Amino acid sequence: MRIETSKEGDKRSYREMFNISDETIVYGVAARIYPGKAQKFVIDALHESDMFDDNRVLLIAGKIVDEEYWNEIKSENAHLFGNKVFYLSEIEDIKAFYSSVDILVNGGIEAEAFGISVAEGLGSSKPVIAYGLGGPLEMIEDGINGWIITEPSLECYIEGFKRTKVNREILNEMGKNSRKKAVDFSVNSNVVHLLEIIKTENGNTTK
């Protein structure tokens, strides 16, 4: 089985690297590869929701933490790798990754305290689809700048991906909303919020 991966030192964009056209909608997952990040759910859900039949592909980046899990994914989806699913290995240039995708996928089956990849995706003007427990719920407004997957099950992942079947004009508008939302989680915004908390606490102590 031939698995498509990126080559170290290759300076082309990931779209160019894998001959992905500008018309193709690209989903992207950037996370360590192990069951907790639900890469298997993501691939299975995209396949079973027929998204791969609608000129859409998936880029996966990240360190392989669980070899057995990854080998199972590759074995079960051999027909998808190299034409619908592309593995980039562990990458350093995350900006190049975000610029290559249209929709960021934050897969998971557990709650996230914050969700750095979600914040980075929003800051890169990308709509995000994520399992909505923990941090992602604060950052994603369902249907506005992304989509929330309500339960960590294949059925809910399938329903979530079906909702992403929108045209590029809508994706661009959702991306703009993502960028606006990202301001709430910027360093400056957090500093202002912290100062407000300190001011409130100091006020309470003087009473």
Instruction: Please give the oligomerization state of what you see.
Output: single chain
| Biggest sheet layout | 6 strands, parallel
Which radius of gyration do the C-alpha atoms yield? 18 Å
Can you give the mean pLDDT?
85
CATH class descriptor:
Alpha Beta
Shape, per Cα inertia axes: globular
Helix content: 40-55%
Describe the structure.
This protein has 9 helices and 6 strands, in the order H-E-H-E-H-E-H-E-H-E-H-E-H-H-H. The protein has helices at residues 14-17, 39-48, 67-76, 94-100, 116-123, 135-139, 154-162, 168-182, 187-205, and strands spanning 25-30, 56-61, 85-87, 103-106, 128-131, 146-149. Helix 6 (135-139) links the parallel strand 5 (128-131) and strand 6. Helix 2 (39-48) crosses helix 7 and helix 5 (116-123) packs across helix 8.
